[in-house]
Amino acid sequence: MVSRVIPVDEFDLVIFGGTGDLARRKILPALFRRFCAGQMEGKSRIIGAARSDHSTQEFRDFVTESIREFNGGTHCEDGTLESFLTHIDYVQIDALGTDGWAELAEKVEEKRIRAFYFSVAPSLFGALAERLHEHGMADSDTRIVVEKPFGRDLASAKVLNAGLAQHFDESQIYRIDHYLGKETVQNLMAVRFGNMLFEPLWNSQYIDHIQITVSETVGVGGRGEYYDKSGAMRDMVQNHLMQLLCLIAMEPPAKFDPAAVRDEKLKVIRALDPVPQDDLVRGQYLADGPEKESYLQDVGDTSSLTESYIAMKVKISNWRWAGTPFYMRTGKRLKARTSEIAVVFKETPHSIFGPESGNHRNILTIRLQPNEGMELGVTIKEPGPGGMRLVDVPLDMTFADALGPDAEDVPDAYERLIMDVIRGNQTLFMRGDEVEAAWAWADPMIEGWEDRGDKPKTYESGSTGPEEALMLMHRDGRRWREIRT
Ligand code: NAD
């Protein structure tokens, strides 16, 4: 059995922004699935809190619709939804006003675990923290959960951190990066630190380079206006790709606990070199026929300099990684939707098979999506007569195959992370200093291209990105891995 369900203590979870898109698509269906799995015990309550005027019944109808649409095909026993709905409540509240706060305080009066999920614009974080404090809900049992984007630069991240720190200790703040809740991402740590096989080789002596790719096939769609203020660097690299890089590059923590893991991640971020202009490529997608418009059309601004694609060569200045670059790329409207990390080992120091056997190297690929799993490329003899010809074959471990039907029970990122909040386990959440360090690294690059007014390169929709990104690798005698599902 893969997913053993350990019920959590009774809790009150208040979702500020309970009627919003994130609550509808992710948070509410995730809670329902945990309920189905038997993890939500007894009298736990989920209280939607938002500006709009709804009765509890209307909010329950909203929850029902969200689950029907986004439940992901989870099968629950008959009557489970009705039973789940009895745990749902609603309060109309204004983060910036006085309405609804006394009512909310009354609802969560009972002494038990209390979590407040700030699923609203970050500009409201400070006001929410303040109101919770004013109405006596910011005690030591309280936890708050905040969503990305956590700032748009170091200065704004510091303001957000300071606003929360006025009333909450760092141990009460859960900054979500949903990548950290993904099963395969956690498996990165299990693979690295649960096996003897990899760790001795996990350094610049044996690893030539590492590639991190997160590619999407969709464009910015209806989010054009929002996205254009951010771009791939702020939206993806500073948070998600950075977290992946940290987990691959960090030193073994002494324990799998929040302080130890996050201390090690922070050391990685602080050891990152600034990325020079020449090691960075930004791009914008072109139109693909009349149906799929270009990035500039999608955002409705023909002079936009924001990137929908970014590739970069990142160096980590420490003993383990000096000399082993990390190549990262992410973008929209690319050839396939995939997220993977490829650890490319060095060639053997000497080939006993002679030059005609070709160049071979081991590549460990960790696939985050789709087909979560790992693959290790190994070199073997090509079968048959005719001498010693070598061929690379994959040792494939697709989790769905390896774990069988149990793999389907694996909770999704939001399920895991919300339950971790209730358990009080911060290991998979970003600490304030981590977020600030990541911005401190990203800011000079962003300021650089903004000050210079750099125009992103263009790339064909459905391609692997701009030509210049290929050159980033070619000039080092390396190649990007194919983007494929
Ligand atoms: P949304 O616009 O769909 O919903 C916003 C919610 O906030 C609504 O319930 C609204 O009633 C409530 N709200 C707005 N002003 C309020 C106020 N003054 N007082 C009380 N409630 C108020 O937004 P969303 O897409 O659900 O996003 C919420 C947060 O999550 C944002 O910070 C967003 O960046 C982040 N986020 C969203 C997604 C996503 O997929 N939607 C993904 C990652 C992060």
From TrEMBL:
NADP(+) binds at G17, G18, T19, G20, D21, L22, A23, R24, R51, K148. Pathway: Carbohydrate degradation; pentose phosphate pathway; D-ribulose 5-phosphate from D-glucose 6-phosphate (oxidative stage): step 1/3. It comes from Pseudooceanicola spongiae. This is Glucose-6-phosphate 1-dehydrogenase. The gene is zwf. Substrate binds at H178, K182, E216, D235, K332. Keywords: Carbohydrate metabolism, Glucose metabolism, NADP, Oxidoreductase. The active site is at H240. PANTHER family: GLUCOSE-6-PHOSPHATE 1-DEHYDROGENASE, GLUCOSE-6-PHOSPHATE 1-DEHYDROGENASE G6PD. Residues 14-187 form the Glucose-6-phosphate dehydrogenase NAD-binding domain. Residues 189-481 form the Glucose-6-phosphate dehydrogenase C-terminal domain. Catalyzes the oxidation of glucose 6-phosphate to 6-phosphogluconolactone. GO terms for molecular function: glucose-6-phosphate dehydrogenase activity; NADP binding. InterPro entries: G6P_DH, G6P_DH_AS, G6P_DH_C, G6P_DH_NAD-bd, NAD(P)-bd_dom_sf. Belongs to the glucose-6-phosphate dehydrogenase family.
